Amino acid sequence: MASLIEHWTARRGDRGQLMLVTAFALAALFILLALVLNAVIYTENFATRESAGVDTIDASRYEYVASEAVGTAVENENAAGNSSYETMYDTVSRQTVIWSILTARHRATDARAVSVGLLSTTNGTRIVQNNSRPMTNVSNASDWRLVRDATAVGSFTMTVNQSSLVTPTNTTNAGELVDEGVYTVVFDNGTDVRQVFVYATGTNNVTVRVANSSGVLSPGCHASATGGTVTIDFVTRTVGGDHCSDLDALRTLDSPYNISYRDGANASGTYAVVTNRPAIDADLGDPDDGSSPYGERILYDATIEVRYVSPTLTYENVIRVPGGDWA
Amino acid sequence: MVRQDQRGQAFTLEGFVAALLVLSSVLFVLNVTAVTPLSASASSQHVENQQRSVTTSLLDAAAANDSIKPTLLAWNDSLGGFHGASEKGYYLTCGFDTTFGKLLTRLFEDNGAACNINVRYVTSTGDLRSERLVYVGEPTDNAVRATAIVTLYDTDVLRSANGAATNTTVENASTFYASDAAPDEPMYNVVEVEVIVWRL
What we know:
The complex is a heterodimer of chains A (about 325) and B (about 200). Chain A has about 325 residues and is an alpha+beta fold. Chain A has helices at about 1-50, 50-80, 85-110, 175-180, and strands at about 115-135, 145-150, 155-160, 185-190, 195-200, 205-210, 220-225, 230-235, 240, 240-245, 255-260, 270-275, 295-310, 315-320. Chain A has an 8-stranded antiparallel beta sheet with strand order 10-9-8-3-12-1-13-14, with helices on both faces. A 6-stranded antiparallel beta sheet of chain A has the order 2-11-4-5-6-7. In chain A, a hairpin with a 3-residue loop joins β5 (about 195-200) and β6. In chain A, α2 packs antiparallel against α3 (about 85-110). Chain B is elongated and about 90 Å long. Chain B has 4 helices and 8 strands; from the N terminus they run αααββαββββββ. The N and C termini of chain B lie far apart (about 60 Å). In chain B, the strands form 3 sheets. Chain B has a 4-stranded antiparallel beta sheet. Chain B has about 200 residues and is of the alpha+beta class. Classes of the chains: A alpha+beta (about 325), B alpha+beta (about 200). The interface between A and B is large, with 47 and 45 residues.
């Protein structure tokens, strides 16, 4: 009996040690598990961190706000009026520098080096007839050239008075319309020509037809006058707000081209043209003395260089910023 | 019998030590992996990425529909604080009564997230200063941050409490937070709107 008790006692002693060893083993196992788990988490953390992606997004966002800021500076200059091209360039350049310095100050706190610089501007002209009068030049000549050697026309909208237009009797070809003195906007690049005829049909309608170099007339776009007028947009190619497929022919004309008016006395209304040419000549009046139509110096567009440097990304781009609501 | 009693006490002690060891290693493991909703851990990394994208998109959307600027200009010039803000001059919730504020409410406040918004500007001497627009509290470890650059012009006018334009330009305002960083130019200042968002 005594030996049996001794045997149990000895076994109980063994089990106490075993528990201790097991506890130690378990503890070590948990620590190992924690280390493995941590390594997994650490790897996943790095794999999903979008550091490079964030930088590229940030760079393109900076480029966008930079183009907005320079665009606004150019638009402000254009709206301010008829200063010299040099003055307008200097003002925009100065504002670009200030904007660049201020934003660099902000972005530096995130370890980003940014800058914007004005590389160049395109000298352009805005030709405006604000008050409704015949489509003649400032000295009332009926046939005259509006724009010379333009490679781009930013906007060209015209509002014509329906009652002022000629109602031709023969409308089968361009020659007949010319003979009847129909008001025409002529786009001419020296080898190719597009004549846009604008005339009245019926009591309240306006018809726009385009003739190519061989004088073949397009079917025509029609619009009824609202408040006695119809608006024609030569850039977005609409007549009275609706798309005019006849005007699509203007897109196939190679630049540079001239824009002239023929028989301007046979139409009246208002218009505004923006071109990328510094073309102010004797046909146009001075905006400051109230004459019409007048030509005004504007900056057609600006070219800027944007730089964005972060620890993981160096980004440089040269972009063109339009000086108004044109492309 | 006496020997057996002594060994029983030893067993109990060993048991306690073993339990202590097991419990402390469990605690250690939990602390090392530390996956809790508020800790900046891997489980919240995806949430953080998403939150950052949402915040950046919010700022881009607000810039696209011109709603950031009216909020920056919703300044009560006589009291020297934002309209409808606390007596300290800033808002205490992530949302207020402007278009931008309503966007914040819909995106963050209604979805269990909090935000702080600071407007940082450069003084005429070139120092960087910050004005609180929203201060909810101290952000947690997993807060994310997004910024947007807004250009203010001399002709920009302060807004009244209902969002309508007043006659006071930023240039003529007496208590407006940002000063004219370019006094001779039509540009007034370039401010950076900093949004810090975290889940509650």
